[in-house]
Amino acid sequence: MNTINRYIREWQRRREIRGYLIAIASAFAYGALTLIAKQIVTNHAPPIVSSAFSFLIGIFLVSIIFNRHILEDVGNNIPVRGWVFLLLTGLASTWGVTFWILGVSEAPVVVVGSLVGVYPLVSIGLTHFFLKRMEVITLRTLMGTLLVVLGVILVTVGRHA
Amino acid sequence: MLGIGFTLISVIGFGSAAVFAKLAMKYVHSSTTTFFSVLVGAFVSFAIVLVFQFDTILTLTAVAFAWFTFSAFVTFILGRYLNYTSVDLLGVSKATPIVASSPFFAAILAITIGGESINMPLALGTLSIVAGLVVILSKHEHN
């Protein structure tokens, strides 16, 4: 029994470390994206046009790289709830990007960038209400998130000072 | 004021996307979630462009399309797919603040590659983000 428990704990620890590394890699990619976006918007196309074409090309890239998983999931008959959540995921992220672009066109980047930095708190609030049975939000996570949000606001202000 | 309103609406979109993705990933892989979120995004954003910016499409160069491809790879394969995978592995509350620390990496790249200078708010912000990440990443006791 002890061996099984130790094995499960080790498996959870490895899964957690993998998750942290992947999250940091994603943050780095999004960070690099701001430099790429600046290059595109300055020299090639307006934000909304470049975003639309990136989405279009993104469909092909994602379907080429992950075709096996996508076909497997669709072949396994995704329940209606699954389709609804997939649709809502797409709509929510598109909604975010579209209104962010509109925000940047109407207000200074420093204001928009600082306000957008607050979104993890919205995620945590929604998690508390809608994912109660799946996740427990610890004080440590909340404190860490507040420090990250404060830091993002300061970095945004600093970069546009 | 309108810009702030738009931004607050976008915050709700960004904030809820990870929660919906977590719920979707009860049924499908993170890669499938990425695919359908990109598909929905393409429909909506392309419809907007066709209505409001159609003339701009006709002026785009081959170099612009090369940049769009690069941007799509970084955004959707490296950014969004890894984001949803981390949400799947860690949960929304742990993964989202780490992914949201991207301005920290953007600032480091802007200083090292872009030649931007460092100032007090930037230094304090960097410290605050690092402290936040350390708090989130530090070992939890499992009993």
What does this structure look like?
The complex is a heterodimer of chains A (161) and B (143). Chain A has 161 residues and is mostly helical. Chain A contains seven helices and no strands. Chain A has helices at residues 2-43, 47-65, 67-75, 80-106, 109-116, 119-130, 139-159. The longest helix of chain A has 42 residues, at 2-43. The relative contact order of chain A is 0.05. Chain B is mostly helical. The termini of chain B are far apart. The model of chain B has no long low-confidence stretch (mean pLDDT 89). Chains A and B meet through helix 1, helix 2, helix 3, helix 4 and helix 5 of A and helix 1, helix 2, helix 4, helix 5 and helix 6 of B.
Which labels suit this protein?
heterodimer, A: 161 residues, mainly alpha, 7 helices, 86% helix, 0% strand, globular, B: 143 residues
Write the layout of secondary structure elements.
The complex is a heterodimer of chains A (161) and B (143).
Chain A: H1 2-43, H2 47-65, H3 67-75, H4 80-106, H5 109-116, H6 119-130, H7 139-159
Chain B: H1 2-24, H2 30-52, H3 54-57, H4 62-90, H5 92-99, H6 102-112, H7 120-137
